[in-house]
């Protein structure tokens, strides 16, 4: 969320607050207030980005390091963390390499490269959507899961990638056309992808109230609740971006939307922190991994060994609720 819709045309971030009808004193007073607001929230966003980056790295490392965390469900969290990490860093790293190696400063080329961030952003939400679908079908329709194992192991994930790539191609081609139309198209496509995931989660929420699960889902429901929470944390920023785009140029509301958009972006950047917190609360082995990596103390968990594992563990998920662990086969 590095670019806001309110200064997409490259204008000053304070231009929405410079009303020609106001006196110079009133304008300077407002700009002074908003300059403090801008600096404060830019600093907060930077700190949250650093925290988000560190959280993604931590999640990737512990899932890769400890065998008992290498389960099917945790691998989906791993994919999500990788996509989120690439969303934060990929385009900037590639652009630095390109500029250093070829001294390229073409804004159109930068636009194409920056679209990689948006591709990773879309894939991260598709991963959460796939996680919810996978959990629901496994626990409520295991016969379908057994009948079409390749579809759930590869097919749905590949389908989401196929859906995301055309969006990246379309927006990359628009980089050489009208820049505002590009920004609008990219926002609409991202909102459509987000809305699709939200509709899937709402549908599953309704269906799980109607149907009875085949197995006990209480201990694995975090595979569905975590995507819901992350979608809820992301919902305000999507709403604000869409409203800001529709009201572009409407001064009376523009300045307030600008403030709200910064607040919602900060809320959006807390999603990885929330993910780690929920995993630590709902999964015994994530908490053990934290204690082993950061506290060097896992004595309270007895003989459990994070480094032990077997070939059969690939299709299983170890979870806990209220400190009682149970093995559930995925």
TrEMBL record:
Region span, Disordered: 1-21
TM segment ranges: 43-64, 76-98, 118-139, 151-169, 189-208, 229-251, 257-279
Keyword ATP-binding in annotation: no
Transmembrane listed as a keyword: yes
The entry's keywords: Membrane, Transmembrane, Transmembrane helix
Name the record gives this protein: G-protein coupled receptors family 1 profile domain-containing protein
Stretch forming the signal peptide: none
Domain of life: Eukaryota
UniProt source species: Ceutorhynchus assimilis (cabbage seed weevil)
């Amino acid at each position: 969320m590095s670019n806001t819709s309110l200064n997409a045309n490259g204008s000053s971030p304070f231009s929405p607050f410079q009303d020609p009808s106001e006196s110079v004193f009133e304008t300077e007073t407002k700009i002074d207030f908003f300059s403090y607001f801008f600096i404060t929230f830019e600093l907060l966003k930077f700190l949250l980005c650093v925290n988000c980056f560190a959280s993604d790295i931590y999640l990737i490392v512990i899932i890769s390091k400890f065998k008992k965390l290498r389960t099917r469900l945790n691998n989906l969290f791993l994919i999500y963390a990788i996509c989120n990490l690439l969303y934060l860093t990929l385009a900037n790293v590639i652009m630095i390499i390109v500029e250093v190696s070829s001294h390229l400063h073409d804004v159109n080329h930068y636009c194409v490269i920056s679209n990689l961030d948006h591709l990773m952003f879309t894939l991260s939400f598709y991963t959460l959507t796939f996680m919810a679908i996978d959990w629901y079908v496994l626990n409520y329709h295991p016969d379908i899961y057994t009948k079409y194992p390749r579809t759930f192991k590869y097919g749905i994930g590949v389908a989401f990638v196929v859906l995301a790539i055309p969006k990246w191609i379309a927006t990359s081609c628009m980089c050489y056309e009208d820049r505002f139309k590009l920004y609008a198209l990219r926002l609409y496509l991202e909102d459509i992808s987000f809305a699709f995931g939200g509709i899937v989660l709402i549908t599953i929420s309704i269906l799980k109230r109607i149907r009875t699960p085949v197995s006990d889902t209480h201990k694995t429901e975090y595979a569905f609740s975590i995507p819901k929470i992350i979608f809820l944390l992301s919902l305000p920023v999507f709403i604000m971006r869409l409203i800001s785009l529709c009201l572009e140029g409407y001064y009376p509301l523009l300045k307030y939307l600008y403030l709200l958009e910064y607040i919602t972006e900060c809320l959006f950047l807390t999603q990885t922190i929330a993910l780690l917190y929920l995993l630590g609360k709902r999964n015994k082995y994530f908490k053990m991994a934290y204690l082993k990596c950061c506290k060097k103390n896992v004595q309270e968990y007895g003989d459990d060994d994070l480094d032990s594992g077997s070939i059969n563990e690939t299709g299983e998920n170890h979870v806990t609720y209220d400190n009682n662990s149970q093995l559930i086969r995925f």
